[in-house]
Amino acid sequence: MASSHVAERPHERRGENLYPCRLTQEFGDFTMTLDVPEGVWNPTPHGVALGHALLDLDFAGEHVLELGTGCGIHAILLARQGARRLTLTEIEAPIIDNARHNLVRNGIDVEVEGLVCDWTAVPGASHAGDAIWDTVVTNPPFAKSGKRYRRYFIDMLILDAHKLVRPGGRLVFVQSSMADIPRSLRM
Fold this sequence. Notes:
- The protein is α/β, with parallel strands linked by helices.
- The protein is 25% helix and 27% strand.
- The strands form 2 sheets. It has a 5-stranded parallel β-sheet with strand order 6-5-4-7-8, covered by helices on one side.
């Protein structure tokens, strides 16, 4: 059972999940502490669900790409599940720096590369079938996509995964049941 405790919540904004805080999050017998800066999403129920799903997967020796690392909650779990190298993407360098801080705060020592980019245009994506990542992990922004069509990023992710994942690799993501899961499975 996941539990979360917010230790500090200086100025929560109505209707947003972007306030700065320090929180603890439990995953099985592991409790992590996360510093979440202003403007970065606090872990959502979908993000926590993805975290629990990651605990059931083995990433031993893998080079994993996380699209939109946020506070680093999934990066921490990926490393604990054996990933040898993480490539973390975010739209601003300070967010990646904070994710690195949270990795260290939680005793994680893994090779980390940070890429400042929109996750729809990742440097290293390949059309030639020679992608460099074993697994791609993400909690896509389907809730606040800025698009009228809420499946926009989910569809793009599924259709373009071959540019990011090595042949035989994995795409691991979470989505809301309101975003047509059967359609995702058919794609």
